């Protein structure tokens, strides 16, 4: 039976034993840099691999519907992140596509500032499954008290019911229980989504002599096979995948939810070339944008010892962490003057550099200096525009998609209500919805009379299309009254009159056809008449 693939990332304060825990679980040392070994702390991302059998105990079997089934195994890519506050940007780069968080809390230290910040970052990114490893349990006479302290800090978070497992790398205690806890949490986790829109946020780039450029990352949204033509966003560089590896094994294709390494011989490294933060994807997946319309939310948790986040006011400079990259941006709030802890609302991010984001993507905001985490959010419109942000049409669009973030039918209807018309092939390209889901949404809205398809490959808001047809026939009536000696209204004149109202030039021909076929009009050469 095929394995199920998931990504697990560590989280927690510096010197609480995250890397040691990964070594004990997998036999792999995730600290690969000489500086990490010399200083004894993790600085950059580390990676390991773990295979677990799916749980078969009676108390777990009832949870397997829609998740694992007996006899399956879980193939896990482990991402070990730095816990020091100076390297939070590296931590966020490693947890953008995580299925389960492996929180690490030292029993002798307890909950610490970076434990809290890492928890908030993961919650902002939509992670809702976790296991807590209470490390160094041999150093405390009362591990149960340390467990209760952790549970108190987890209350009111998405990880409130996460199992807490005392462990010790010195004695080896707790690791069987930790593996069982991970397997139990994964048992009802949905498989990684395959929407046919693969994206690999690049977290490592290096060159092998005689091989060329290698990039690694966590693949989401779809598969990428060997030989595929790819484009790196936002740079726009193109190339092809010569070979694919996952955890050191050659593969015909990388699957969503796996750690993957691609050999991209057409792409160079170095100054001005491919770097961490770019996204490897398929051509035709849209382009990057420097303006994002988003939904922002702020936690109201500030435990003792944790630096409170700065006020998030309209115009604040922030650092946006999205995927494996980050950039500076200015926040523009739609309604409020400031976003206080515990508040949420619509905003626009005007970035210093373009980001390749999809609608539905999650991100984290930290202050411009990188000292504190301020907020998190969801992308509502990945192709925002500063002049459009405060218009009534965009407000309605943003509110509608914010209220229905996982509904492709609402997303299509909201898009066409705002844009009036669009090529069906261009609808929601930069979203997690598959082409099949979008096509089904178009069909359902057409059946309900919410949208029409005025020509092959075009979709339009039905109410707007009706208004446009009424406006055109009215123009013909006015022309007949003013020029009774003429056959009808010249098409060039009608086109000029409607130019500002047509979002797509090809809609004019579709309009003429509709007026002739069922609008009571006739075409005589280059004129329309009643």
Describe this structure as you would to a colleague.
This protein has 530 residues and is of the alpha+beta class. 27% of the residues lie in helices and 30% in strands. The strands form 7 sheets. Strands 11-10-16-7-8-15-12-13 form an 8-stranded antiparallel β-sheet, with no helix packed on it. The protein is elongated and about 100 Å long. The model is unreliable at 59-68 (pLDDT under 50).
Summarize this structure as a short list of keywords or feature phrases.
530 residues; alpha+beta; six-stranded mixed β-sheet; 13 helices
Task: Tell me about the largest β-sheet.
Answer: 8 strands, antiparallel
Integer average pLDDT: 90
Distance between the termini: 68 Å
Proportion in β-strands: 25-35%
Provide the gyration radius in Å: 27 Å
Q: What's the count of strands? A: 30
Q: For the largest beta sheet, what order do the strands appear in spatially?
A: 11-10-16-7-8-15-12-13
Helix content: 25-40%
Sheet/helix structural class = alpha+beta
Number of helices: 13
What gross morphology would you assign? Answer: elongated
Point out poorly predicted stretches. 59-68
């Amino acid at each position: 039976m095929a394995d199920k693939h998931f990504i697990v990332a560590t989280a927690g304060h510096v010197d609480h034993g995250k890397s040691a825990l990964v070594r004990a679980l997998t036999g792999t040392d995730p600290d690969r840099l000489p500086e990490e070994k010399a200083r004894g702390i993790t600085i950059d991302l580390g990676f390991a691999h773990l295979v677990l059998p799916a749980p078969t105990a009676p108390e777990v079997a009832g949870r397997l519907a829609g998740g694992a089934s007996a006899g399956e195994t879980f193939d896990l890519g482990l991402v070990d992140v730095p816990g020091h506050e100076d390297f939070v940007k590296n931590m966020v780069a490693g947890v953008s596509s995580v299925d389960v968080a492996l929180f690490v809390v030292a029993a002798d230290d307890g909950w610490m500032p970076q434990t809290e910040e890492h928890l908030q970052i993961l919650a902002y990114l939509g992670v809702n499954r976790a296991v807590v490893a209470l490390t160094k349990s041999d150093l405390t006479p009362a591990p149960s008290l340390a467990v209760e302290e952790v549970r108190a800090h987890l209350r009111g978070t998405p990880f409130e019911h996460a199992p807490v497992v005392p462990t010790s790398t010195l004695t080896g205690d707790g690791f069987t229980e930790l593996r069982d806890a991970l397997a139990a949490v994964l048992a009802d986790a949905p498989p990684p989504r395959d929407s046919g829109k693969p994206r690999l946020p690049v977290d490592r780039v290096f060159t092998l002599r005689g091989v060329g450029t290698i990039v690694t990352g966590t693949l989401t949204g779809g598969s990428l096979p060997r030989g595929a033509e790819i484009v790196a966003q936002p740079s726009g560089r193109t190339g092809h995948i010569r070979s694919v590896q996952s955890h050191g094994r050659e593969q015909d294709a990388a699957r969503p939810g796996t750690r993957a390494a691609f050999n991209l011989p057409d792409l160079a490294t170095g100054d001005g070339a491919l770097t961490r933060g770019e996204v490897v994807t398929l051509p035709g997946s849209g382009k990057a944008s420097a303006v994002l319309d988003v939904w922002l939310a702020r936690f109201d948790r500030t435990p003792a010892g944790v630096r409170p986040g700065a006020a998030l006011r309209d115009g604040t400079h922030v650092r946006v962490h999205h995927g494996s990259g980050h950039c500076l941006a200015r926040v523009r709030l739609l309604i409020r003057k400031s976003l206080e802890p515990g508040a949420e609302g619509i905003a626009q991010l005007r970035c210093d550099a373009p980001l390749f984001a999809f609608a539905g993507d999650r991100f984290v905001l930290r202050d411009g200096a990188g000292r504190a985490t301020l907020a998190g959010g969801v992308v509502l419109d990945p192709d925002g525009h500063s002049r459009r942000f405060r218009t009534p049409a965009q407000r309605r669009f943003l509110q509608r998609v914010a209220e229905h973030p996982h509904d492709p039918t609402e997303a299509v209807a909201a898009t066409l209500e705002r844009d009036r018309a669009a090529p069906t092939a261009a609808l929601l390209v930069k979203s997690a919805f598959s082409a099949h889901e979008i096509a089904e949404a178009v069909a359902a809205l057409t059946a309900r009379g919410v949208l029409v398809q005025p020509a092959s490959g075009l979709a339009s808001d039905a109410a707007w299309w009706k208004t446009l047809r009424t406006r055109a026939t009215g123009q013909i009536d006015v022309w007949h009254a003013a020029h009774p000696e003429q056959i009808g209204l010249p098409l060039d004149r009608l086109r000029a009159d409607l130019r500002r109202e047509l979002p797509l030039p090809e809609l004019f021909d579709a309009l003429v056809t509709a007026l002739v076929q069922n609008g009571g009009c006739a075409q005589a050469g280059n004129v329309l008449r009643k």
